[in-house]
Amino acid sequence: MAKGTATSSGKIAIPQPAHPDKRRQPLPWHRPKPADEDPDAPSRVRAILESPSYVLPEQDIAFLARGEVRGVRLQVEYLKPETLLEEHAVRNTVVVFGSTRIPEPAAARRNIEALRQSLETDSGNAVLIRKLAVAERILAKTRYYEIAREFGRLVGSSRCNDGSPSRLVIMTGGGPGIMEGANRGTFDVGAKSIGLNINLPHEQYPNPYITPELCFRFHYFALRKLHFLLRAKALVAFPGGFGTVDELFEVLTLVQTRKIKPVPVVLVGEEYWRRAIDFEFLADEGVIDAEDGELFWFAETADQIWTSILDWYDACGTPLGLRD
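-> structure tokens emitted (324 positions)
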């Protein structure tokens, strides 16, 4: 009796389900054309299989790197972090920017000692003298590493009014220096933190205190900046160089022009920032309005940063719900 037809009892005889991957009898295309049918067939088939055109598009790195595929790369670079952050229920972040060149104090002291030893054998070396002067200034700024670390602890250990852990997550650029300090502070208290690395021509490494499943690497600065702001509840900018200033002014411009809703912007180290950027000069020259100077404020300690952010939300009537 043919399978699938009714038996005398009226019950249908169901055939054995097909194996999801294998067949008892191979299909014609499961075997290449044999050499006994065409001696040149195997080499021709091999040439086809090795041709770049035959590589699956998602596995063809050379094709994906072409200019015409930039739109697809942009979409994927947006989608991967977006999807994984959603899977980890990350919805609110505090973004910390700052110099990669401001390490923990011990590292800065070791650098100074090495330079001093070099100068003992080459005391007139002008390059070494300048490097030592810069290194001493870096050492003076390592207090900001400690402030960033303490701030990371405050955010990582923060709790809601009902006593449950807050859902605020520290997000940095994932590099060394100030960013390492902030990630390290959350690591100290067993909290998660995020790092958004950027792919650069020279080899680089993320700092070791980022939650592994929340460390992402970007090719495009624009997509990285987008993810910095998508969930940001506050921006904290420590002393830094071109990258820090670029990221800071991106946010200030977006808030100034009302392209995004206002968020707290805290500049850590008033003396540094007032010398690095003369905001009052910009206002006096008329290239920004006086009210644009109200888009940010200064703080000196981790507690001041954290308390002022909470105060800002209270003043807006949309408290974060993280008061004791």
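The chain has two domains: 75-104+143-316, 105-141.
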